[in-house]
Design brief:
This protein is α/β, with parallel strands linked by helices. The protein has two domains: 125 residues, Aspartate Aminotransferase, domain 1, CATH 3.90.1150.10; 241 residues, Type I PLP-dependent aspartate aminotransferase-like (Major domain) (Aspartate Aminotransferase, domain 2, 3-Layer(aba) Sandwich). 36% of the residues lie in helices and 19% in strands. It has a four-stranded mixed sheet with strand order 1-2-3-15. A four-stranded parallel sheet has the order 6-5-7-10, with helices on both faces. Helix 10 runs parallel beside helix 12. The radius of gyration is 21 Å and the shape is globular. The two termini are 36 Å apart. 47% of the residues are buried. The structure holds pyridoxal-5'-phosphate. The site of pyridoxal-5'-phosphate (PLP) has 15 residues, from helix 4.
């Protein structure tokens, strides 16, 4: 009997090792892993370079405290500043923490401007920002908040793609709009570039902040370092996590220089956030991701993969409703519940994971090989052929 609580619905499968895009189960089977810890292992399993850099740091110093200077963190923050919209960074350990800090920064900004009443955050209904108390009430999902009252105040909601509803929901108390640039858990729903541009304009007009949660779609997953770069806009605050650690728990909040000064000494802290071991791994991920041609290759592979999936959809229009996504954040929306389809893919040694709206979520590592995509395409086609 497991002593682990039952809050997960785990598949009855475990692994003894991984290498790149593959996982080897304890019962001797080899799987193509297109879950990758849910968009976390951006460079695949047991990446030799990440392993080397982590071991190198492990022999020196793992953890000190944010009471001291941490050169590895200084370096990672500086690189994030050089490569993105950001001027300042706060490191955390997870996505939920990062989104909460994003909310804290937005509120603190208006507080520092003498407008503490501007403290409400406007989010998309049934979105996903993590599982802490504030994050579940930010998500506005009935399922995630059930039994966890009292409700954490300060969050308002509008429906995805409801532009009029969005404008209406902005009040004098609104501090920021927070949404995922491409919604992951809720079903791989990408906010189109023209909407992101509109969102930025709307925030400027209403003098409120734009928080884009890139915990899942960020850090190369979209084929650019951030998904919003495709729309050529700049948000004010961006929480990231998943991909930046390549499997090591790291979260961060990136901010522009307008809002960052609100976070004065003592205003926020974290015991583990930004420790030398985590920061060395984060730097190693950056080393790989900013190699010449890396992100362009993600775009190229994405185009190829999505095209192949659309060919399957044409052949099986009764099974696949839509192929959607950005970069290597890809969703196959089915007409019916996807559980059986995912099970069949697994029986054929391809691991995928569910998302909202009957979507089979496909998340290869960003350094996936074309032959591995071909392998996945063949398995998906085979499962479609033998479905029903
Ligand atoms: C995964 C995720 C989170 C939460 O991250 P945790 O590390 O699980 O706390 C927040 N926002 C988005 C968009 C996510 O995909």
């Amino acid at each position: 009997m497991s002593a682990l609580a039952k809050n997960y619905n785990r598949r009855k499968i475990s692994f003894k090792r991984g290498k790149g895009s593959f996982l080897y189960s304890t019962n001797g089977k080899k799987y193509l892993d297109f879950v990758q810890g849910i968009a976390v292992n951006s460079l695949g399993h047991a990446n030799p370079y990440l392993t080397k850099m982590m071991n190198k740091q492990a022999k020196k110093v793992w953890h000190v405290s944010n009471a001291f200077l941490i050169p590895e963190g200084e370096k990672l923050a500086r690189r994030l500043k050089q490569k993105t919209f950001a001027d300042y960074v706060i490191f955390q350990n997870s996505g939920a923490e990062a989104t909460e800090v994003a909310v804290k920064v937005a509120r603190r900004y208006f507080y520092s401007k003498g407008k503490p009443e501007k403290n409400r955050i406007l989010c998309i209904k049934n979105s996903f920002h993590g599982r802490t108390l504030a994050a579940i009430f930010a998500s506005g999902s009935k399922k995630m908040t059930e039994g966890f009252g009292p409700k954490v105040p300060g969050f308002d909601h509008f429906d995805f793609a409801d532009h009029k509803g969005l404008e209406k929901a902005i009040t004098k108390k609104t501090a920021a709009i927070m949404c995922e640039t491409a919604m992951g858990e809720s079903g791989i729903k990408v906010i189109p570039d023209w909407c992101l541009k509109g969102l930025r304009k709307l925030c400027n007009k209403k003098k409120i902040l734009l928080i884009l949660d890139e915990v899942q779609c960020g850090v190369g997953r979209s084929g650019k370092f951030f998904a919003f770069e495709h729309a050529k806009i700049k948000p004010d605050i961006v929480p990231i996590a998943k991909g930046i650690g390549g499997g090591f728990p790291i979260g961060a909040v990136l901010m522009n220089k307008k809002v960052a000064p609100a976070m004065t000494a003592g205003s926020h802290g974290s015991t583990f956030g930004g420790n030398p071991l985590a920061m060395s791994v984060g730097n190693a991920v950056m080393d790989q991701m900013f190699k010449k041609g890396f992100l362009q290759n993600v775009q190229k592979l994405s185009k190829y993969f999505i095209n192949e999936l659309n060919l399957i959809k044409e052949d099986y229009p009764d099974i696949i409703k839509e192929v959607r996504g950005i970069g290597l954040l890809i969703g196959l929306q089915l007409f019916e519940d996807q559980s059986n389809f995912i099970k069949k893919l697994e029986l054929n040694k391809l691991l995928t994971i569910r998302a909202g709206e009957n979507v089979v979520r496909i998340l290869p590592p960003l350094n996936v090989k074309k032959q591995e995509i071909d392998l996945a395409v063949n398995i998906i086609r085979k499962v479609c052929k033998n479905y029903n």
